[in-house]
Specification:
- Helix content is about 85%, strand content about 0%.
- By secondary structure, the chain is an all-alpha fold.
- It starts with a helix and ends with a helix.
- About 25% of the residues are buried.
- Keywords: Membrane, Transmembrane, Transmembrane helix.
Length: about 220
């Protein structure tokens, strides 16, 4: 049966409409897929950022201290800060509450920074007061007389103190290399504790380890 021109026109119109509908559907599907992909990418980025915020904070902290690595006064300040880091581990080993790591850091940093800003008391005095107090406490309650992380942290405190002292007393051109080694080794110390999940919180260990490595590298390349 022969189709009339009107019927042919209707059929062609239907076919064109179907093709246009299919094309529009495909385009809408592609746009929706792209939007969903972008949203998933954003969610993944936010999830990673939420997990890795200590590393980001370490980079920001290193940027703030970058200038210190290039001056004699700054190197001396970094030597004093190196004393503070193992002191926190010593305190945390005594408390045995890793969740308090950031709070203890704040409690140590405030008097440390205040003493340096006021020049009324050497920042090293904070370490000289707190470290013996923790060790005496450990002796009195027996924690230091038995196998315990406090023993390990006490030895580590002495070792890192030697690196810090060398950074303070040696000629800056030599002392900065010794100090850089101390910072880098403390970074290794942090990552060991991060892997084990012991003594300090994982977030603190990640932040401190990242900061230590960046400061150590800055000391090596700044001069």
């Amino acid at each position: 049966m022969t189709m009339t021109s009107e019927q042919q026109g209707e059929q062609q119109g239907k076919q064109q409409g179907e093709r246009q509908g299919e094309q529009q559907g495909e385009q809408q599907g592609e746009r929706q897929g792209e939007r969903q992909g972008e949203q998933q990418g954003e969610r993944r980025f936010l999830a990673v950022a939420a997990r890795r915020w200590p590393a980001a904070l370490a980079v920001a902290s290193a940027v703030l201290t970058a200038d210190a690595a290039g001056s004699t006064r700054g190197v001396a300040a970094l030597a004093e800060v190196l004393l503070l880091l193992p002191l926190l581990y010593l305190v945390m080993a005594k408390l045995r509450r890793p969740g308090l790591s950031w709070l203890v850091l704040a409690a140590l940093v405030v008097p440390f920074v205040a003493s340096r800003a006021l020049d009324a008391l050497a920042p090293v005095a904070v370490v000289a007061v707190v470290a013996p107090a923790v060790l005496i406490w450990g002796l009195l309650d027996g924690q230091l007389r038995r196998p315990d992380p406090l023993r390990v942290q006490a030895v580590a405190m002495a070792g890192f103190a030697a690196f810090a002292a060398a950074g303070l007393v040696l000629d800056p051109t030599v002392g900065r290399y010794v100090l850089a080694a101390g910072w880098l080794l403390h970074g290794v110390w942090d990552f060991v504790h991060l892997r084990r999940g012991s003594v300090v919180s994982r977030s603190y260990a990640e932040w401190c380890g990242g900061l230590d490595v960046l400061v150590g590298v800055a000391l090596l390349v700044a001069w």
